[in-house]
Specification:
Four copies of one chain form a homotetramer. Chain A has 479 residues and is of the alpha/beta class. Helix content of chain A is 39%, strand content 16%. Chain A has 13 helices and eleven strands. Chains in contact: A-B, A-C, A-D, B-C, B-D, C-D.
Chain lengths: 479, 479, 479, 479
């Protein structure tokens, strides 16, 4: 079904009765927000450090360390190196139920190093950069957890707060290994946020995704002397990618497929006997993705058959579509409404507009107002996250906060730029406040927890979550 | 220049002992040549008619008719429509051994209609043309047969002369159906010639070839409304051809592979559920071609698998490589040496040079001298003929005669042009003379026949010819 | 912007004031509906004839003739062969304003001949078939026009009714030539319907589309003897289509691009010097399509450059996106509500379910109830029509009526099957009634006409319609 | 089998008058050969070290060092790091004319690490290996130079001997930088040999070659969120390689084109804005290669145009075809005839046959007899060397010596295997002897030098050698 058609089930947020409108914020909630303000200088320090480290998936040693150290200093019990990943950690405080888990990411993206300025210029040529804003993600979540810890410590809230440091979101899906190791098993409700170009109590979800690699093996030969005795593994890759591109016409418009060629031969002189393509396939639902993966598997086999090579098809990772919790979104939205817009300065708006000019998108600056709540269940825009896997195991609340110029390209230098200066900082602090306030609601109001949990139960009845990751430990790089 | 050709710069001909150098031509031979001169006006009439008819494979109704009528008028017994092909015929005269068969072709090529002039201009846009000179081929062979018939009738030679009218050389390989029907079974020695850009007692042979079609079948769908429900058969074709092009790096330099897409969908609006590609594969030996065909078959299966379509792979026809008879070549060469060069006029040379200018090849005019005899056994240049299949069943002598500007593109307008005017005529008459003279030698000299036959026996010992054509009657078009 | 996002401009039909709910149908409306019932046997006869003729674009000689004859017999003034197309005609009755035009199509699609049965079987192998239901389209529109003519003749309505016989919708866009010739210039409001798998007062519109051909020209050569002297025009086509398939990743999900290879070479033996691909590009708005066409043009130039061939890029036709008239949709929907559902028989429902089983879609039978009115402006599903071009020149009302099993593939045999038996007939009669009733409203209620026209004026202010068709007469086939 | 090879079954060598048949070897020559025998243990030590180092182009630090050290220890004046390459060096001894230069290579090939055994097993997975036998090349040439040095030192020969250590043959063509720096300017005659599967006074030459890279640049975007805003640089690469593969049909059979994709994107998540393909093009003559490079350049431009990316085309290196010196070949062949066959042991022959079994080639063992001298000028087999560039500047003599199993794949593990054990050692020692003996002839016989030089003058008259390498220093890797 076309996504456009799918939408005709919409409901207007404004019309929905029973939206959790917190009339007057509780004392605890006001204190939580005040805690974030107190922590803001340290948050900025942490995010700027992580921004400068720019460590990619499973290499986030220093980034994880500064966060874990901060948690420890604040009195959390910290377990480092969980789920066989040196950069995964869990920081807990309190005891008993409810157990609220809040996730923090901190991995960077390769190849998009950028200065915090409005024109493209690498900080270090070829190096990694925080093109997805994860330098802000971890500190905001952690600060919110600290705010809750303070309230538990003060006896104002009961239960347990747990910060879950989740590495390698951009690559292998670190949360899957943490789920597999049971690190979310006793969590009642989980929260996460994400840097964005708008402020939103997310109800749109994210796409299901599978990451796989196809390796082709041929027969080496001197490419000039006797190429007829060789069979090029790269031929297999090229035919496979052609098949994928032909397939694009024959998939639903919601599908996304993309790949890179990670091994395309060593030297022209030798017919390559090994080549490898790495591919991601996504759609609105993991059931659809499963079918697409089978078609891609056939494409790989066909490409091998047609080029007299052999292929190996390996699923490396994958995420489900996000299970949106509308009850949770109502709570988040109410807190956003209470907090109001982010107060960006004129200079920050101008910085954003410069970036928009530079990248050729509409010159609209930064979105500072929370978006209206949209409670429609609808096809997600393109994009995936391993937070979505958590959402099928634990009821998960998710929000977005502006840290970048509207419509500026994501996973690209503009996001690195604003994430490394006051625009990103301001969004991070705001996110921490919404997270803290929302958690206060969950601790204080059992009926809100129950509504969140009931919706989750309803949607997952009879469902069995199945990991996309292969058996064995996570692929931690040796170096 | 092809490396194989490049090497033929050493001339063994002069050194070869025992080359059949006819010291003084026999009376019969002189009379045979005189007969060709007498027939020349009628030969030109026949070839010009066939040139104008320009009938393609298995549609050569009028072309076959004028030749068969001429044979009948000369006293031959003519059997028309043999081997289930309306345009195949056999014209015989005489009785007893030896039985010498001489082949004549007369089919044109689609899409290369051309006037007899030095610049490209179609006689009729989109129509067929004699781009391989077969309008000259049939009349020259037939005139040579008539010359022999006259000598048998006069009691100067003993045995049987048989003109074999062989249609559809350019497409299905008409001679294979005639071989299958036993029409060559009692022939002792067969002869053929071919229009060319030089004069040669051919010792280079021709390539083995297989023609096959791959049909892909997918699933139709509205290409805008629900292309995701469709599977494009054309995708299968495109991936298959890509595989063939990738394969080119991994075949020997002697291989030729070429294809056309004969069905590529009806209207863009509909995802095509049927598409078809027609492909020829060639190499120096049919054993190699067989292997290449298996690789192409795997490419078709792989392309279908990779595009979620199905494929059908059908071998349509094929030819062996030519079995060169060196003893025969010596006889032919001796007769060429006796006859000397073709006397092209200054205007004809200029006509050829104009064509060479127009097509951007070296300006060398027409080759009028017979090439030196080269008795090396070597890889053939690109090209195939169903005469080669005859050569594995009957000892076959083959020669080439200049009818086109040197190096001008074959199967193209320049060959149509010179074949429709005096250049082609002059070559045709010369070819008829060489053929007639060579046949006189074969009738008169039993030891020359034996040498030819002994070489054939030696080379085919233990060999079993296997037809490439499918079972069932030839694919005569319905219209 | 994603189409899903685009939609957040929605309006709830239920909330819209002033929906034209006709309390009690007027006498004229009731008589119009009775006229359709009276004409139904003749309508079925006409549609079955056109179904059997199955004439493709600009070859609809007999189909156009039976309709024009019927109009003439009913007292219309008929002008045949308008706009330089032998199969285009206009049938008029009455005088003065308003002038209501109603369009009728009657062209079939190549290659999908099918019997009126529940399994795939061609009536005539390889022949055309009415896979888009145009055999029903023309008769229903004409019958509605006749019903209005009767009321004008009876003095019950004032103005002019004009049936516009529009050929070649499936191919060149016949209506564009009729627009260019001014045949719609004096029409106040136009109507059209379309066979469908549901009943709908259409508010979704249709896609903008451009049809273009790319011809590649190379250099012929003997594919075995000297392919290195050739340049394959087919190489150009293959590289172009590869580029289009690569481009699919980099276009919005609303885009549709599809092509067929109409000329892919003659015989493998010759390097093709000519090849041609025919391509359609569509999107929600013609401004986007224009940009895509420029990218495709660059792809053609690049493919030619990369293959040492030349390319010619020719825009052959094109349509705008449909300008939806919501005021008109309200009138149509009110009439559908009054008429109620189509009463399909149990056998017809079973017939439809058989087809759904056969084609592997959900087994839901026929949709007999009108769909709820949806007044959202939104991205159209895939599909285009030259009715949309009319909609930018004249306010146009458009509806769909069930004539095929729900979700069965369009432009395919299931639509041919149901269009040739009582399911199609029943839909056709229903469509004629809705059209007739709606036209009665337009004649009787000036304020409804004004509302329709005002919406049109509002949306086209400052707009200049620009034809996608090339200069010169329509490409009427010679045979 | 290549047709060119096939033809070399006629032996003109025996017929050639004036072949320099050294009736009785001079004392100097006998001493030179004895010197090689004396040095053999050290040669084996050097070659085994270099084999184990397996250092690739411009990283041959230790390999160059052990050779330079040996030369220095033998009394040569050694200049290291010449021509801006740390691993290039020149070792000279003697004074005055003639100056004979002898070249030595020592770079390995990436990715083909292999143990000295008959089945494929890497010494170190993924590491480099001596798949072209250059571990033998350097030591043999150097030992020959030492033998000459001893004779000069002993006053038996007059002139200068110069060992030229030439790095990076497999990659950038190190000799071109040395030519550019004038390091061959005063050399009268140069010599080189190459490990092979047969013993040959080479008269076949090598192919001209150009190495170029094409970099594509597109526009990054989130591959799921807004791929329509991205333009994939990898699309450019894929379309370019498709064009190259299409082009294969339209080049002469002597052409070789091969490529690897060195950069094919970082992560699937991001539309790659950079990708790079590295390509080599070869043919029998550099004039043809120049034309092919222009076609490839157009293919790159076309691919960029068609994919909305930009391309940069950079010629990185290139070699001319070898200018074969037939007079020199006669001298070499005479010395081979005098030395006779290599005495391989039964175990060595069995080792070679095992490799032949393992790689599926004909089981013929090692070729131990020198091949007959073939003085035909002919198209080279596939393969290139920067020795060929030297051959256009200085008269160059070149020979091949068996160091590998016949027909075993080159640039592959079998060559690494035999090069690391006694088979390779034996070939190396033999090569050194032929080189030494040939140089003795050149020093002792001015008329032989003159014949060599006269042939060179004749062939290069009016010729101006033009470097394929770009301006600027050689691309020495930073690490």
């Amino acid at each position: 079904m076309n996504c456009c058609l799918a939408i005709v089930l919409f409901l207007l947020g404004a019309l929905v009765p029973g939206a959790a409108q917190a009339d007057t914020p509780s004392d605890a909630k006001q204190e939580a927000v005040a805690s974030i303000d107190r922590q803001s200088a340290e948050m900025i320090g942490l995010s700027d450090q992580i921004w400068a480290f720019a460590e990619t998936a499973l290499r986030e040693a220093r980034s994880a360390a500064v966060l874990a150290d901060y948690a420890e200093a604040q009195g959390f019990a910290v377990e480092r190196g969980v789920a066989d990943m040196p950069t995964a950690f869990v920081a807990s405080y309190g005891k008993g139920r409810p157990i609220i888990g809040i996730m923090g990411e901190y991995d960077a993206l390769p190849g998009i190093s950028q200065r915090a300025q409005t024109t493209r210029q690498a900080l270090e040529e070829g190096a990694a950069g925080h093109g997805c804003g994860h330098n802000l993600f971890g500190p905001a979540s952690l600060a919110a957890a600290v705010a809750i810890k303070e309230l538990i410590a003060a006896g104002e809230l009961d239960g347990t707060i747990r910060f879950i440091g989740t590495p390698a979101e951009e690559d292998i899906g670190g949360k899957l290994y943490m789920l597999r190791d049971g690190l979310f098993d006793d969590v009642d409700i989980a929260l996460a946020w994400h840097p964005s170009d708008e402020i939103n109590a997310d109800t749109e979800g994210s796409q299901a995704m599978v990451s796989f690699a196809v390796e082709f093996r041929g027969r080496a030969a001197h490419a000039a002397a006797d190429p007829w005795n060789g069979r090029s593994a790269l031929d297999g890759v090229e035919l496979f990618t052609h098949a994928i591109n032909l397939m694009r016409e024959h998939v639903e418009p919601t599908v996304r497929m993309h790949y890179v060629i990670t091994d395309g031969g060593d030297v022209p002189n030798v017919v390559p006997d090994y080549a490898r393509v790495w591919c991601w396939v996504r759609d609105s639902e993991h059931t659809s993705v499963d079918k697409l993966v089978e078609r891609a598997r056939a494409a790989a086999e066909g490409a091998a058959l047609a080029t007299d090579t052999t292929s190996t098809f390996s699923i490396e990772s994958g995420s489900y579509e996000m299970l949106v919790n509308l009850e949770g979104a109502k709570i988040i939205h109410a807190n956003m409404s209470w907090l109001g817009p982010i107060e960006f300065t004129r200079e920050e708006q101008e910085f954003a507009r410069e970036i928009q000019r530079e990248t050729g998108v509409e010159i609209t600056g930064l979105r500072s107002e929370p978006e209206p709540l949209d409670l429609t269940r609808r096809a997600p825009d393109g994009g995936s996250t391993d937070v979505a896997d958590v959402s099928w195991v634990v009821p998960t609340l998710h929000l977005s906060v502006t840290t970048a110029a509207h419509d500026a390209p994501w996973h690209a230098w503009p996001v690195v730029a604003t994430g490394g200066m006051s625009i990103g900082h301001r969004g991070m602090v705001y996110a921490a406040k919404v997270l803290a306030a929302t958690m206060v609601d969950l601790y204080e109001h059992a009926e809100q927890r129950k509504a969140v949990e009931a919706e989750f139960e309803e949607q997952t009845r009879g469902f069995k979550y199945r990991f996309y990751i292969p058996e064995g430990p996570p692929p931690v790089p040796a170096d």
